[in-house]
Amino acid sequence: MSEELISETMDDESLELDESEELVSDRIADLVEYLVVNIVDDPDGVSLEVIDGASSSTIEVTVAEGDVAKVIGRHGRTIKAIRTLARALAARLDTSVEVEVMG
């Protein structure tokens, strides 16, 4: 994984958002998209939908039918790791997030 993306995404100075900047959930979605696109065989088949709620967000990841197993991983280990990274970034940005995989 690119250290530049993580440091850019988790940079303390960029945590202060104003109205002209992107939503916090979009920054988390960018991280999730980066991870998923680099796992699957068909990167063009990846799409994300961000559903913002009052206190949390849900990121629905849709991948090609043949790539669902790759994103989930053995015993769910890969998706668990993706969720852990997304939740860690969300906690750092004072929000919460759920990541769901759609086939």
From TrEMBL:
GO molecular function list: RNA binding
Gene for this chain: khpA
UniProt xrefs under InterPro entries: KH_dom-like_a/b, KH_sf_prok-type, KhpA
Keywords: Cytoplasm, RNA-binding
SUPFAM superfamilies: Prokaryotic type KH domain (KH-domain type II)
Cell compartments where the protein resides: Cytoplasm
Annotated organism of origin: Collinsella stercoris DSM 13279
Function: A probable RNA-binding protein.
Signal peptide annotation: none
Predominant cellular place of this UniProt entry's protein: cytoplasm
Protein name (Swiss-Prot/TrEMBL): RNA-binding protein KhpA
PROSITE patterns tied to this protein: KH_TYPE_1
Domain of life: Bacteria
A Gene Ontology term for the protein's cellular component: cytoplasm
Similarity field: Belongs to the KhpA RNA-binding protein family.
Pfam (any one): KH_KhpA-B
